[in-house]
Known about the structure:
The protein is mainly α. Helices cover 67% and strands 0% of the residues. Helix 1 (19-31) packs across helix 2 (37-74).
Amino acid sequence: MQKQTKVPEKARFDTKLSKTQKEFFEYAASIGGFRTLTDFILSSVQEKAKEIIEQHKVFLATEKDREIFFDAIMKTSSPNKKLADAAKRYKKAVGTK
């Protein structure tokens, strides 16, 4: 029985650009060692998309960390029983009231 390989689904993306832009991109593709303008564009867009997504992830993590930190210091609550008991034991051990 012959094994069938699944071909990735393709989608089309069309754009219009000026002749100057096309020539500029083709020049960059040729000196960058890309086989075609399409290869160059796809590679460039893929790289930029990864960069944007990574920056977004870092921002969200930083924003979440910031929120957690400031909530912890700004929204104070009374110590729970275990913490109060520990403080009493500490004060007794070091001889303070």
